[in-house]
Structures are given as structure tokens and as C-alpha cells.
Design a protein that fits this description.
alpha/beta, binds magnesium ion, Alpha-Beta Plaits, 661 residues, binds ligand C2E, rod-shaped, 5-stranded antiparallel beta sheet, 4 domains, Beta-Lactamase
Length: 661
């Protein structure tokens, strides 16, 4: 269009000149008497005029053509304008045109939809007024760059909505140039990406936070510890600690009240820990007033495990004080589903040391400290130290070796006889594990606990039960006693927690072909009392199977006989610690007497464990204890030793019979 217009100017100039010359020629030809022209000259002039008239005709034709072209272009322009309007008026993106001074020339209606401002309202404000003050400089610089280069970079910044909130927009600017190539204005296309950003942030939040409590998760926590480690390497005075918190008995609570109640409790614990760490600043650094959250981070690692990073502390004492404070706060009862719940926690503390390189190591050591706290009786805290590290390494090695032992079949069953005090005869055996190692036979004290904690106990004791039952069946056919010989097996807490325990035992008994009434299942009173409701259920299932039930190590727990009353128990095994003092300590012998009496009142039989001397045995006989198990009669031995005992007993009975006849 500009080209056509430029061409038009010189064409018009040329036309005017030609027309003037032509007019002069026509005048000269029209009035020849006024001129002093010769005839021949008049003839030439006529030729010129004719030529010029032809030129004018050509020009007129060209002008008509030009005019048609212009009209077409104008029509096209109008159409394009209409199209632009339709696009900009209906576009979801906010389209703005601003001049070089930053004044608004045009704002599309989307501004009203997205930011709430009408175009009248926008007209009276500067184009940068709605931009977040922190982003403004960046936007102005980008616009300047777009003016110079012609096209700006994609930019993200915040714009204020009329209601005062901030929207995130993504924008691209394009420069509009005049005929000299100078930038006249900028067309800016802004897209509202607030929802998209929020969705992305929510997603990022999810990957770094625990869904139940909304606390940071392990990944985020480890990141913070990594940061703390880096700081401590740069500044010698910067000290921090990691506190690993594990609730005591949460599993029991969860299993008995259900997962919904468990979740509700965890949420309450999280809130209480948050409230608790708000005040921690004051405990660890009295007199400081800064916001505590700068120094304390709380996270949930999953299950009932929480973890705290305590920064800028003076020494380990600060961390211990914080742990005490947490325990104090958690000790206040919670109310879950209308029920009052009391919980305690075991806390392990790892204090920063120069030897740490990985954040995972600190968390691991805090966890080891927590396990130590649990083993020492729960509801306490333990600071991790080098000794604990050595123990942990040893345990880890033992765990690996235990797994190998299971694969290689290094576990043996030893049998210790249980003797009737009335007849003096063996009534059955207790099956006890031994680990056959190159250096000798290991007793359960060295491995049962780790096997329990790692779950290795489950396959291990299944093997033991199968072997002990096969052995019993062999003895049954060789030594047909009446009643038949029994076999006692021990059940650990982990086994007891198996929902299908009765089923598992039942299927082994069927497989081997042993009548359930020949089996004594021993559980300690501590295990039975940990969750009386559940115990009652599991014991009833076992009872329904037909096996007998013994309470092992009686007297070492906190239960009383009356509390055991509700359980379908057959036998009570009085712990060795009582029996070993029965002949030397009057008080102990009195306790044993009362236990035996009460047990008989409840219809229970009594086994005295660990009788080592003749005095102890005769005292037990006087107290009407039915059964005894102890070194006095026999130490636990392998199947050959047990077989020898049975054979000897048979031979004695035979010689007694022969002597009698
Ligand atoms: P427990 O069930 O109370 O077994 C009796 C323990 O007392 C056995 O120790 C036995 O050797 C010991 N004992 C028996 N008579 C005497 C005595 O006169 N004097 C002394 N000083 N000790 C005596 P052991 O075999 O070392 O087993 C210790 C514990 O390990 C057992 O206590 C039982 O709770 C557990 N345990 C052993 N084997 C197994 C097993 O295969 N599975 C499970 N779950 N636990 C086992
Ligand atoms: Mg036992
Ligand atoms: Mg025992």
C-alpha cells in the first residue's frame, strides 16, 4: 500500500506537468494569430500536443488501474482488521499493544476476564503498574530487548488481579516497525498459567511431602541434612543433631483400633510435634527470639517414624533436652475416636561429627540410637556413639550370616526333657534352637533376638517345628507312652503377630502326622499381655486347633494370674530366676508356693524351669509342682542324647518291673 502511495506522488507530479504543457500547447493552437509562429512550427506543435494528449490518456488508464488496486487493498485491510478484532476480542490470551513509551494503545477483553480490569481502567494506568514489583525490572528489560531485536524472549512474571491476588503469566513480545524499520510499538501476548503452575507446584509438593501429615518426607529431609552437613564443614561453630522418633507400640494400636484410628493418631502426633518444635528454640537457646522454624525441621519417614533436624545447637545436651521435651509432650494423652490414648516414643540422637559425609549416615545412626532406646525399655532417648556403631555393624554381619545359615541348614534342634515329679518319668521335651557354627554350637541368646527383629525367625521356627514334630512321631512309635510324649515349642512376638499362625501350625501337624494334643505352644507372659484382646483371640484359635498352651517365663512380666484367667491356658512355666533361689531365699520360695497354689486354683498345671539341684527338686515336689525341666535331670541335647534318655528310662522301668516280679 505504501508502495502504491509513493508511486502515486511522482505520477501525479508528472501528470500535472504534462497537463500544463498540454494546456499551453492547446492554447497556442487555439489562438494562432496571437503567436508569431510559422506554419511549419504550428504543425510541429500540433504533433507535440497530440503526443501529449496520448500520454494523458495513458495516464488516465493507469490511474483507473491504480485506483482499482487501492480499493482492493483497502478492502483486504478492512477484512484483516476485522479478523484481528475477532481474534483478539475472543482470545483467552491477553493481547496488548504498547507504544515505545510504555503507554497502552490496545488491551484485549481477556484482560477483564483474567485480571478483572476493564479496558477503560487499564487505559489510565501504566503498562507496568499491575506487574509484581519484584518482577517489574525484569519485564522492562525484556521489553527493551524486544524493541531492539524485534522479538522478545518467553517470560514469566506475576500480575496483580483486581482483587489483590497474584496471577502468573507467560508472555511473548513482538515489535512492530514503521517504514524506516524503527520500532513503533510492541504486541504483547500474555497467557495466564497460574493454574498450571499451581498444579506443578502441588505435584512437586507431593513428591517432597508426606500425604498424611503434609510434613516433609525423607527426600526433602535428607536434602536439609545435606545442607546442614555442608554448613558444618564450612563453619566449625555450626552444630546440629538429628533426632529419630519412633512411637512405642504403635503397631498394636493400629492393629487393634484400625488404620483410620492409626492415621488420626499420627496426624495428631504430627501437630503436637509441630507445636512442640515451635518452642524448641527457647529450650536449646534460652534468650533467643528468632523464629524457631529456621532452626528446626520436622519430617515423617513413614509409619510411626518422625525425624527432626535441630540446627545451630551448642552441644549434644541441647538435643537431649529437646528429646526430653518431646517425650513430655507426647506423654499427654490423645483422644482418638472418642477414646483416650496414651503413647510414648523412643528417640535416637545423632550429633553432627566431621566424619559424616552422607546425610543418610546421620539418619541411620539416629535410627540405631532409637533401636538402642527401644531395647533399653522404650520411652527414652539414646545418643548414638561409636560403640553403638560397632554393635550395629556386628548385628548387620550377624543378620547376613543368619540368612546364610538358614540356606545352608545350620540350625539344629536340641531337646530338653520335661519330667513328672510324681512318676519321675519324662513326659515330653522342649525343642530349643542351636546354631551349628564352625567354632561351635551357638545358643539362642546370641541370635534369637536378631532373628526376631529381621523376621528370619519365621522360616527358622517353621523348620524347627517340622523337625521336632517328625522326631516326636518317631519317638511315639518307639516309646508308646500313655499319655503320649509331648513336644513344647516357643513362639516369639513376631510369630505371634502372624494372622495365620494357627493355620500354619495346623498344616505342619497334618503334614507330619502328629496329633495336636501332643504339642505345647509356649508364649511368654509379656507377649500374651502386650495386647490382651488380640492374644485372647489368637490363643482361642490355637486352642481350637487342639494344641496345649503354656505361659513361658512366668513371673518376669507384669501380669498377674487373675489377668491370665481370661486366656485358654493349660500350663504355667515358672521362670528359672525363681526356681534357682527357691532353696536359698525364703521369700522366693513363698512366692513360688503362692504361684503354684493360684495356678492350681485356676486349673493350670505348673512346670518349674531351671531346677539344677536335688534340694530345689524336692522342694518343688513338696509344693506339689507337677513338672520340672532343668539341668538336674538333663541339659538340652541333640536327638541322640534325648533318645538315649528315653531308652535308659525304658530300661530302668524294665529292670524295675523285672525286680518287682
Ligand atoms: P525358654 O523357652 O525359657 O527355654 C528354657 C531355657 O532355659 C533354655 O535355654 C534352656 O537351655 C534353659 N535351661 C533349662 N534348664 C536350665 C537350668 O537348669 N539352668 C539353666 N541355667 N538354664 C536352663 P536356651 O536353649 O538357651 O533358650 C533360651 C530361650 O531362647 C528360650 O527360653 C526360648 O525363649 C528361646 N528359644 C530357644 N529356642 C527357640 C526356638 O527355637 N524358637 C523360639 N521362638 N525361641 C527359642
Ligand atoms: Mg520355652
Ligand atoms: Mg522359659
Amino acid at each position: 500500500m505504501r508502495q502504491v502511495e509513493a508511486r502515486e506522488w511522482w505520477l501525479w507530479g508528472f501528470a500535472v506537468t504534462v497537463t500544463l504543457v498540454l494546456t499551453a500547447g492547446i492554447v497556442a493552437l487555439t489562438f494562432p494569430e496571437n503567436h508569431l509562429l510559422q506554419n511549419s512550427e504550428l504543425r510541429d506543435l500540433r504533433e507535440w500536443v497530440r503526443g501529449l494528449a496520448f500520454l494523458v490518456l495513458l495516464f488516465d488508464i493507469y490511474t483507473v488501474y491504480q485506483q482499482l488496486q487501492l480499493q482492493r487493498m483497502r478492502r483486504e485491510l478492512t477484512q484483516r482488521n476485522q479478523l484481528f478484532e475477532v481474534i483478539t476480542e475472543n482470545a483467552a490470551d491477553m493481547i496488548a499493544v504498547v507504544d515505545c513509551a510504555g503507554n497502552r494503545i490496545y488491551n484485549s477483553p481477556a484482560y477483564q476476564k483474567v485480571l478483572g480490569y476493564s479496558s477503560e481502567e487499564l487505559k489510565v494506568t501504566s503498562s507496568t503498574e499491575q506487574i509484581h514489583p519484584q518482577d517489574r525490572q525484569r519485564v522492562v528489560e525484556a521489553a527493551e530487548k524486544a524493541r531492539i531485536t524485534g522479538r522478545g524472549e518467553r517470560l514469566e512474571y506475576r500480575m496483580r488481579h483486581k482483587d489483590g491476588t497474584w496471577r502468573i503469566v507467560e508472555s511473548v513480545a513482538t515489535a512492530i516497525h514503521n517504514s524506516e524499520g524503527v520500532t513503533e510499538s510492541l504486541v504483547i501476548v500474555n497467557r495466564d498459567i497460574t493454574e498450571r503452575r499451581q498444579a506443578e507446584e502441588t505435584l512437586a509438593h507431593h513428591t517432597l511431602h508426606d500425604a498424611l501429615t503434609n510434613l516433609p518426607n525423607r527426600t526433602l529431609f535428607l536434602d536439609r541434612v545435606r545442607h546442614a552437613l555442608a554448613l558444618s564443614q564450612r563453619h566449625v561453630n555450626y552444630k546440629f543433631a538429628v533426632l529419630f522418633i519412633d512411637l512405642d507400640e504403635f503397631k498394636i494400636f493400629n492393629d487393634s483400633l484400625g488404620h483410620a484410628a492409626g492415621d488420626a493418631l499420627l496426624k495428631q502426633i504430627a501437630s503436637r510435634l509441630i507445636a512442640c518444635i515451635r518452642g524448641i528454640d527457647m529450650i536449646s537457646r534460652p534468650g533467643r527470639t528468632e523464629d524457631a522454624s529456621t532452626f528446626v525441621s520436622l519430617a515423617r519417614l513413614g509409619g510411626d517414624e518422625f525425624i527432626i533436624l535441630l540446627e545451630e545447637i551448642r552441644d549434644c545436651g541441647d538435643a537431649i533436652r529437646v528429646a526430653e521435651r518431646i517425650q513430655e509432650r507426647l506423654g499427654i494423652p490423645f483422644v482418638v475416636q472418642g477414646q483416650e490414648v496414651v503413647t510414648t516414643a523412643s528417640i535416637g540422637i545423632a550429633f553432627c561429627a566431621t566424619s559424616y559425609i552422607n546425610p543418610e549416615d546421620l539418619v541411620r545412626d539416629a535410627e540405631i540410637g532409637m533401636y538402642r532406646a527401644k531395647r533399653e525399655g522404650k520411652a527414652r532417648s539414646q545418643v548414638f556413639d561409636a560403640e553403638m556403631h560397632n554393635v550395629a555393624v556386628k548385628r548387620l554381619r550377624l543378620e547376613t550370616e543368619l540368612r546364610r545359615a538358614l540356606e545352608l541348614g545350620e540350625f539344629r534342634v536340641h531337646y530338653q526333657p520335661i519330667v513328672s515329679l510324681q512318676s519321675g518319668k519324662i513326659v515330653g521335651f522342649e525343642a530349643l534352637s542351636r546354631w551349628q557354627r564352625p567354632e561351635g554350637l551357638l545358643s539362642p541368646a546370641h541370635f534369637i533376638q536378631i532373628a526376631e527383629e529381621t523376621g528370619i525367625i519365621l522360616p527358622m521356627n517353621r523348620l524347627l517345628l517340622r523337625e521336632a514334630c517328625s522326631q516326636l512321631r518317631a519317638w511315639h512309635s518307639e516309646f508308646p507312652y500313655d499319655p503320649p510324649l509331648t513336644m513344647s515349642v516357643n513362639i516369639t512376638p513376631k510369630e505371634f503377630a502372624q494372622p495365620d499362625l494357627a493355620e500354619q501350625i495346623g498344616s505342619i501337624l497334618v503334614e507330619v502326622g502328629i496329633h495336636p494334643s501332643c504339642i505345647n505352644v509356649e508364649i511368654t507372659e509379656t507377649v500374651a499381655m502386650a495386647d490382651p484382646q488380640r492374644s485372647s483371640l489368637v490363643l482361642s484359635e490355637l486352642k481350637a486347633l487342639g494344641v496345649h498352651i503354656s505361659i513361658d517365663d512366668f513371673g518376669t512380666g507384669y501380669s498377674s494370674l487373675s489377668r491370665l484367667q481370661g486366656f485358654p491356658v493349660d500350663t504355667l512355666k515358672i521362670d528359672r530366676t525363681f526356681i534357682s533361689q527357691i532353696d536359698t531365699n525364703r521369700e522366693t520360695s513363698e512366692i513360688v508356693r503362692i504361684i503354684i497354689k493360684l495356678a492350681h486354683n485356676l486349673g493350670l498345671k505348673v512346670v518349674a524351669e531351671g531346677a539344677e539341684t536335688e534340694e530345689q527338686v524336692s522342694l518343688l515336689r513338696q509344693l506339689k509342682c507337677e513338672l520340672v525341666q532343668g539341668y538336674f535331670f538333663a541339659r538340652p541335647g541333640d536327638h541322640a542324647a534325648a533318645h538315649a534318655l528315653l531308652s535308659k528310662e525304658g530300661a530302668e522301668a524294665l529292670s524295675f518291673q523285672t525286680a518287682a516280679t
